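Regression test attached.
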Amino acid sequence: MKGFLLFLLTGILFALLQTSVLPLFFLPNWRPNLILILILYLGLSENLSRALIAALLLGAIQDSFCGATLGLYVSVYVVIILVTRLLSGQLNVESPPLLLLLIAGGTLLQNLLVGFYLTVFAETASVLHILLSAIPLQLISNMFFATILLFLLLRFQRLFGYRSGLAGLMYQSKHHGS
Amino acid sequence: MRELLERYRFLLLAIALLLATVLLYSYNLRQKTATTFFERAVLTFATPFQVGIDGTTDTITASWKNYLWLVDARQRNIELGQENLELRAQLQQVQEIALQNKRLRKLLAFVDDLDHSALPAQVIGEDGSNWARTIIIDKGTRSGLHAGFPVVAAAGVVGRIIKTAPDSSRVLLITDASSAIAALIQRTRTRGVARGQGNNLSIEYALRDAEIQVGDLLVTSGMGGVFPKGLPLGLVESVTKDQFGLFQQITATPTNDFSYLEEVMVIVGEDR
């Protein structure tokens, strides 16, 4: 539970970073979506109910800092968590390159869903042009920051609690001794 | 029945959650200008942090400019001593204040020309996504701001307030894809709708017959009832006329550079 709350606090910190600090250094297309990385990580490491609660809360927090409508990221992150759960059983998520590929897949899925929701529900089709042009840069940025965050997580693993079945973490998990 | 529910628990949960979130999103789409309790709470909670982060980055930037980059110079010119360093730092601060003063004077002059009362505000945050274009300012309902108030900077229109909290507000920039403003080309008086395209604007419904040129100034028409008439929006960047069709395709560059926005003015009153 402590680790889960810490993840939520990390999500709030990421939201503040994304709105106040990262804009000082990165243009909008180069800004990573740190909350998405956290959501994907939670989707792989937490149990389903906790991951869904986190998706609802973090999505609502991101909605409060993005665009004009509450509910967009809530819905997008719920879908991402569900897809991640379906995939995690089929894939070898202990492999770090595969984890990075999942981040890339998550980024693409998130853009696809945001584009879909905004086009179908909000009728702002011109956003597709903005989203499509931003995808390559955001892919690079998200994967780069995911690598840094994964490295930091391994360093501060004790604080967040050990988790099994994740890239680089398996052999330090409680199932395998720490 | 129970067995069926047990077996398809994941699927049912997924469908129920998806429907619930989509309904929440659709409901909020209709309540666009209403700030929900959750949003107000998040904005209120985040404001002191954002103000703090903004202040800290300003201090760090000032320290970097005033001191750190001078370390080498100080080593080379040790004889200048601490007094010289302090004087330089003070000079930098004075220059920074002078620059800010210049910006604010320009902003005030712009607002004076408007004949509307306005409230100055500081930009403390930007949008958390890469597709939406919003900013957060350090004034909210406690300063009398409400959703719909127009926001301007020295070079022209910035956007309008969409969400408010006691001490902060979110401003939808004119470059956001969901922003549409009634506009006209100043020289030809051709009417159109300026829609955000992320970094620039597209002018829709401009009649094909109008002779619009690159460099023409695009201003607000005052038709929407949100923005006063005649505020600069952008400069025409390209004009394309297809063989057929009633309208021409025009793109414009906003007069404001939104990546360097520090202070803005919220127009709060009617004509003075």
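Expected vs. actual: identical. Chain B has five helices and twelve strands.
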